[in-house]
Amino acid sequence: MPAKKSFTISAENHARATVAAATSDNPAFHHTLEPSTQPSTQPSTQPSAHPDTDRLRVRLTAVLLRKQRRPIITPDAMHLTGLFLYPVKSFRGCAVSAADVDALGLVGDRRFLVVDEHGAHLTQRPLPRMALISTALDPTHLTLSADGAASVRIPRHSSLDPYPATLRTVSIWRSQGLLAEDCGREVSAWLSAFLGVTCHLVRIGEKFRRPVLDHPAFTAAPANTPISADRIVSADLFNFSDGYPFLVVSEASLAHLNDRLVSIGEELVTMDRFRPSLVVSGCSAHAEDTWSRLRIGDITFRSGGPCARCTVVTTDQLTGERGHEPLRTLASYRRDPTDSTRINFALNLTHETKSGTLRLGDAVELLKM
Question: Among the residues of the chain, which ranges form H helices?
Answer without folding.
Answer: 11-24, 51-69, 185-195, 251-263, 327-331
